[in-house]
Amino acid sequence: MIKGLKICGISEPKTLNYILNHRYPPKFIGFITNYKKSKRFVEYNKLKDLINVDKKQIKFTSVLVNPTDEILEKIQDLNFDYYQLYDVGPERTKEIKIKYGIKIITAITVSGESDVIKYKKYLKISDIILFDSKGYHKSESFDHKLLDIVPYELNKMIAGDIQIEDIPNFKNKNLIIDLSGALEDENGKKDISKINKLLNLSAKI
After folding, report:
1. Contact criterion met (CB below 8 Å) for 174 and 152
2. Does the CA dihedral 195-175-55-123 come out positive or negative?
3. d(CA 156, CA 107)
4. In the predicted model, is pLDDT for residue 156 greater than 90?
5. What distance in Å separates the CA atoms of residue 60 and residue 79, rounded to the nearest whole number?
6. At 129, is the secondary structure helix, strand, or coil?
7. Can you spell out the DSSP letters for 156-175?
8. pLDDT digits over 133-144, tens only?
9. Which domains, and CATH codes, for the chain?
10. Between the N and C ends of the chain, which has fewer C-beta atoms within 10 Å?
11. 63-90: per-residue pLDDT in tens?
């Protein structure tokens, strides 16, 4: 078994409803909350309505890039379980975690080993460490072998242009796998048939 899945970049009620009611749902669903450069960004009023649903057992995650106090105040009462933070230092991360009483996924963007070891600065303040590519809203990859230096027992997630066909390669890696671009059609919209393929495959691994 893999440790779990996160499907990121959900922006439409139909797609969200499909995932929530799937026989093999993911552990996490991510919503792009403040990064307007992303085609998956969801404007606040739409986001508020979109996630006002019964999450069942799935953890809703707000994906935030260097969030301001203004956006954090605005979303604090929304239906989120985790904040996934990019470009946020350890002290600021701690401040956000304490002030909003929220679980934290610290996203570390990786191009080399020096990036990977930054996880050590966040061990006491993050619930999950996400290792991602430098691409942000672009689906770019990095050398996953760089994570060999990370302790097996660390509660970790991996992203960065991971394809559905790659999932079996992560068996017994003690990782949560985060996918977004691999689940989209040629127009950049989430493809329910690809989501179904992913969730059914994950149940077999």
Report:
1. yes
2. negative
3. 10
4. yes
5. 7
6. strand
7. EEE-SS--GGGGGGGTTS-E
8. 886 555 567 888
9. 4-202 (3.20.20.70)
10. N
11. 999 999 999 999 999 999 999 999 999 9
